[in-house]
Specification:
The protein contains 5 helices and 4 strands; from the N terminus they run αβααβββαα. Strands 2-1-3-4 form a 4-stranded mixed β-sheet, with helices on one face.
Length: 132
């Protein structure tokens, strides 16, 4: 019994030890409001394909109604004024921002520029998961 207890104690400590460093969550928040024509155009042109793109894999979309109270888990440099406003969040804290929707061609370039600065982009690129 004297030998069993230390072995069980060690096994318990190893089982409760973290296996790796926790990964920060990267999310693209889209601040929108009802009646926003540019939000609707974005929904038509980008929303259907966003989850299937490298950008969408790195930063899943989170929609936030600009006219409602800001969620408690988000910290912004300033409250968005225009819709749509795209805010890249790392663990709920603003990292970068794109105000407005400049059209499909310009959107991909601008959002890509923001995402390419994130470590997730390089990690996925090394694995062959991101096209650039």
């Amino acid at each position: 019994m004297k030998r069993v207890f230390p072995a069980l104690l060690c096994a318990g400590l190893f089982a409760s030890a973290p296996l790796g460093v926790a990964r920060a969550e990267l999310v693209l928040a889209m601040f929108e409001r009802a009646g926003c024509i540019y939000c609707r155009i974005w929904d038509d042109q980008i929303a259907p394909i966003w989850p299937r793109t490298a950008e969408g894999a790195i930063a899943p979309l989170r929609r936030i109604d600009l006219d409602r109270r800001l969620p408690d888990d988000i910290r912004l440099a300033s409250r968005p004024v225009f819709t749509p406003t795209f805010v890249l969040l790392r663990d709920g804290v603003e990292v970068a921002r794109l105000e407005g929707y400049p059209g499909e061609d310009f959107f991909w370039g601008l959002i890509g520029e923001i995402l390419r600065k994130q470590p997730e982009w390089a990690e996925n690129d090394e694995k062959g998961g991101v096209e650039g």
